[in-house]
Amino acid sequence: MQRLYFFKMTSINYPFTVKRQQIVDGIDIAFCDEGKGEQTFLFIHGLANYFPSWKHQIVSLKDQYRCVAIDLPGNGLSSSGDFPFSIFFYAECVAKFIEKLELKNVVLCGHSMGGQIAIVIALRYPHLLEKLILISPAGFEYYNSNEVFMLQQGLAIGDFFYSDAMHVETAIRQSFFKQNVEESQLIADLKKIMDKHSKKNWKEMVTGSIKGMLNEQVSSFIRNITCPTLIIFGDKDQLIPNRMLHYGDTPESIAKYGASMIENAKLKLINNAGHFVHIEKSEEVNCEIREFMSKLSNEE
């Protein structure tokens, strides 16, 4: 039986009615559920973010599809606690959420870390989804053991994205190719969300999430994805690939690698867009999603 709570936020910009679903004891997932349709989009945000980052996709698609977007545990308005915060942990939570809400005909859509989570779900729980959309996904880029060690040393001294208010602002601004009116709202909201979580839990969430992306790499397994997949990257992404370690790579080369490894994949590289391509170029991204869905429907 679903356990749902409805509430409105005044200080944090949640543009949709927020619901809550308990997936296991101690973990409630905050989410929105908009629109109706035979197919359900399930949106997964990236590192230390929240589901309103998908608002442009939800507003555009809810006239034809059911659109569900979640806050991952430890993020946004979902439960905070002593969780492992690994990619497998997040994937298992999303899988349980799908089962609890009995979502059918799922199109799983993940951004950045949410993309890596979506990849793991497609590999471990393929029966739970029909299609996959990866937007600026983590997971295509490979880190060797020395690189993993170097990045984890950075975590040990606390100098990393989203670790505090200053790093939140830096990370958001680096995620856009050009200054965008959305930046200030995102920064303000995420700072308020940080204040709602304890500093200890927030730091553990960010640290655990980054370690999860590094220690649970999926680049060598994506060839096993069998469902139709749409991949979207901004050609000016400043976060993927890692500029410090992989300066010889480009967003295009990383995107093409991922697309070449997935048998039934379509790749769209969007010009003059950064890591938050789904916000910065929302109309173009939404057109690509609709075209992807329409083509597959016609083939079926």
Describe the SSE topology:
Blueprint (H helix, E strand, L loop, with lengths): L18 E6 L2 E8 L5 E5 L10 H7 L4 E5 L16 H15 L4 E6 L1 H12 L6 E5 L9 H12 L8 H10 L6 H16 L2 H17 L13 E6 L16 H11 L3 E6 L6 H4 L1 H18 L1
Parallel strand pairs: 3-4, 3-5, 5-6, 6-7, 7-8
Antiparallel strand pairs: 1-2, 2-4
Instruction: Name the CATH superfamily classification.
Output: Alpha/Beta hydrolase fold, catalytic domain
Give the helix tally.
10
- Note the main sheet: 8 strands, mixed
CATH architecture verdict? 3-Layer(aba) Sandwich
| Tally of distinct domains | 1
Which stretches of 5+ consecutive residues score pLDDT under 50?
1-10
Instruction: Please trace the helix and strand order, writing H or E for each element.
Output: EEEHEHEHEHHHHEHEHH
Number of strands: 8
Average pLDDT figure: 91
CATH class: Alpha Beta
Percent of sequence in beta strands: 15-25%
Please explain how this structure is put together:
- This protein is α/β, with parallel strands linked by helices and 300 residues long.
- The chain has one domain: Rossmann fold (3-Layer(aba) Sandwich).
- It is 41% helix and 16% strand.
- It contains ten helices and eight strands.
- An eight-stranded mixed beta sheet has the order 1-2-4-3-5-6-7-8, sandwiched between helices.
- Strand 5, helix 3 and strand 6 form a beta-alpha-beta unit.
- Helix 1 (55-61) packs across helix 10 (282-299).
- It starts with 18 loop residues before the first strand and ends with a helix.
- Residues 1-10 have low confidence and may be disordered.
